[in-house]
Amino acid sequence: MNTTPIRRASRLNWAVAPSARRNAHSKAQHKAPTRPQKPQRPSPSRRPPPPPQRPIPKPEPILPAHPNYKGPIMSPRLMTFLGVSVLGISAYCGFLYASYSREVSKAQAMNTPTDVSDRYNNTAPTFDAEVEISEKAMRMGSKRAALVRIARGDVLEVSCGTGRNLEYYALGERRGTDDSGRAAILGCRSLTLVDLSPQMVSIAEEKFKSLHPEYEDQEKARLVPVSFRAEDAATVTIAEPVKRHNANGQDLKGPYYDTIVQTMGLCSMPDPVGTLRHLGEITEPQNGRILLLEHGRSHYNWLNRILDNLAPAHADRHGCWWNRDIGAIVKESGLEIVEEKRWHFGTTWRYVLRPRQGSEKS
Ligand SMILES: C[S@@+](CC[C@H](N)C(=O)[O-])C[C@H]1O[C@@H](n2cnc3c(N)ncnc32)[C@H](O)[C@@H]1O
């Protein structure tokens, strides 16, 4: 209770003398602290109206997590990495496109002749190194092997280049079964390799010597004759007609090859249709086969546009028109298609052909 000393004194001691009371009163007057004035409360009638109350927003309802929710899909670190990668790839694509546009303008301004086959005389020493990586990436080794395995009898390879098929030939005849499971004589009785470029032929010959050291022995070399010649495929003939006799001394066959092989050759020659027609004429008419593994136009227009745009520059440098329509060339040659296959967006073509039979010839 906050009673002042005066009141206390008066309540407790009214009986004391008046002088003492006066003293006590003056003391109390002297000591009593001044009470802080309470702010006067406005009477209820004069109070200011309360400020309008803002509606209190309702708290968002917390939805329960979806039972399949497993937290954020990507960590921030992964998102940063992906962002930087996308940026890098976009910059690289931009650079590629700029280089491609520059090369197309250059190629279109060139005046490349149709016949670029002489380029191989200069590129022969580096040819293998140049094609090695792309051939490995495209698994061309197994495609070459599968095609050359079919070769049998007296075999001619045209546009042989540096002899990239040499390791796949089976030298010497043997009994076996063909791809359809029928009994057949397989392997080469003789092998002749020709190419227009003498430089390419000499590399192929060296390669053969290191692959078959047994050919230093003349006796063995005679068993399955192998020869190399610098010659045009468009006019190649059988130098020494392969004549076989039966027991009565009669000729069994004329001046034909049983198998003619060509890989990546149609792109390099000035007259691919005429060359194929000629090869058809020197292939044994009944059972002879022409085996091709070629590269050219694709199934896809976008890729053909790229091949077309850059073709003059590529042909001028490498001696090969990579945008040729191999299917159209084969069709125009009039040879009969036994088998056709394509790989690598349709740019790699494999054909097994045979001469058109007498009555079917146009
Ligand atoms: C792209 S290279 C292919 C070489 C080899 N066949 C291969 O698969 O690696 C083309 C070859 O065809 C040869 N060539 C071009 N025109 C020719 C022709 N009319 N007759 C013979 N060979 C030719 C070139 O000299 C070159 O060696």
From TrEMBL:
Source organism: Penicillium malachiteum
PANTHER family given in the database record: METHYLTRANSFERASE, METHYLTRANSFERASE TYPE 11 DOMAIN-CONTAINING PROTEIN
Biased composition (Pro residues): 39-64
Alphabetically ordered keywords of this record: Membrane, Transmembrane, Transmembrane helix, Ubiquinone
Domain of life: Eukaryota
Signal sequence range: none
InterPro entries associated with the record: Methyltransf_Superfamily, SAM-dependent_MTases_sf
Protein name: Ubiquinone/menaquinone biosynthesis-related protein
Biased composition (Basic residues): 22-33
Single Gene Ontology MF annotation: methyltransferase activity
Lipid biosynthesis as UniProt keyword: no
Disordered: annotated span: 1-68
Segments passing through the bilayer: 78-100
